[in-house]
Design goal:
CATH architecture of the largest domain: 3-Layer(aba) Sandwich
Strand order of the largest sheet: 7-6-5-8-9-10-11
Number of helices: 8
Distance between the termini: 30 Å
Helix content: 25-40%
Strand content: 25-35%
Structural class: alpha/beta
Bound molecules: the ligand Nc1nc2c(c(=O)[nH]1)N[C@@H](CN(C=O)c1ccc(C(=O)N[C@@H](CCC(=O)O)C(=O)O)cc1)CN2
CATH class of the largest domain: Alpha Beta
Order of helices and strands: EHEEHEEHEHEHEHEHEEHEE
Number of domains: 2
Number of strands: 13
């Protein structure tokens, strides 16, 4: 039994009159006092989205409140989550050979600037073993060089074991340069975030900065999105851009992009961990 006094309710459902009235009435009946509330109606899809943070004078048992809310949620065909505000999201970081996002996230967590826990790090290379050790985080080296499809499937099964053993809530591809299989994407649906090093939908694929340089764009960017089996097509959570000019080499774009990637990924993880992001088909609703 876990008791708390502060909670976050996140929901989406077919739009209709009376949703806010019904939900806030339920919270009042539970002794809840609303601290923040945000909602959005999507006219295209006739769908309603809402996030409420509320507190209760007396500690409430989370499972009991979830149980009490279920009938109303079912009646309104809701997708919903109710969590304790203080509960930290358990994040598995995946990384390949570029460590700027990994290093940035570890520092943000170490300094209390990201409300997550990192029980483990997985990589298909050894580069960041010592960085992980310096943060006392277990590092799993699952190589893939020259891997056959069977070996790639086995490697993904090892990642799943780490996820299950560590009760992971969110997987973050922090410049993990391997394409996850359709099965893995299904298993991680809505709980895996990738940082793509371009302003999507421009410059998909593995070498976006060289594509950007070749095209002669004046802005480059980064995109944090949920991972789907369609490469670089997942619902976008956050994007950021940086100005460049004709004098810059691809290498200079890569250097500028490192900072943009770090900021974009950290924001996306923070908003996911604060239960501010809701799926809306191929898009997201983000109550920042
Ligand atoms: N199922 C998905 N898996 C991954 C996604 C995704 O959107 N869906 N994003 C990538 C990250 N990424 C771009 O952001 C990306 C990574 C790798 C490649 C690529 O072509 N990789 C080559 C191998 C590259 C190498 O070994 O260095 C390949 O897998 O054949 C494109 C885009 C992470 N996974």
């Amino acid at each position: 039994m876990s008791s708390s006094t502060r909670f976050i309710l996140k929901l989406s459902c077919p739009d209709r009159p009376g949703i806010v009235h019904a939900v806030t009435g339920f919270l009042l009946a539970q002794g809840g006092n609303i601290l923040t509330s945000a909602q959005h109606g999507d006219g295209d899809h006739q769908r309603f989205f809402m996030r409420i943070e509320f507190e209760s004078a007396a500690a409430l048992d989370l499972e009991s409140v979830r149980h009490a809310f279920s009938p109303l949620a079912a009646q309104m065909q809701m997708n919903w989550t109710l969590v304790a505000s203080a509960a930290k999201t358990r994040v598995l970081l995946l990384v390949s050979k570029l460590g700027h996002c990994l290093n940035d996230l570890l520092f943000r967590v170490q300094t209390g600037h990201l409300p997550i826990e990192i029980p483990a790090i997985v990589s298909n290379h050894r580069e960041f073993y010592q960085l992980a050790a310096s943060h006392n985080i277990p590092f799993h080296h699952f190589p893939l060089l020259g891997a056959t499809p069977e070996q790639k499937a086995a490697q993904e099964r090892r990642i799943r074991e780490v996820i299950e053993e560590n009760r992971i809530d969110l997987v973050v591809l922090a410049r993990y340069m391997q394409i996850l299989s359709g099965e893995m994407c299904e298993y991680l649906s809505g709980r895996a975030i990738n940082i793509h090093h371009s302003f999507l939908p421009s410059f998909k694929g593995a070498r976006p900065y060289h594509q950007a340089h070749e095209r002669g764009v004046k802005l480059i960017g980064a995109t944090a999105h949920y991972v789907t089996s369609d490469l670089d097509e997942g619902p976008i959570i956050e994007q950021e851009v940086a100005r460049i000019d004709h004098s810059m080499t691809p290498e200079q774009l890569v250097a500028i992009g490192r900072d943009t990637e770090c900021v974009t990924l950290a924001r996306a993880i923070q908003w996911h961990a604060e239960h501010r992001v809701l799926m809306n088909g191929r898009r997201t609703v983000v109550f920042r």
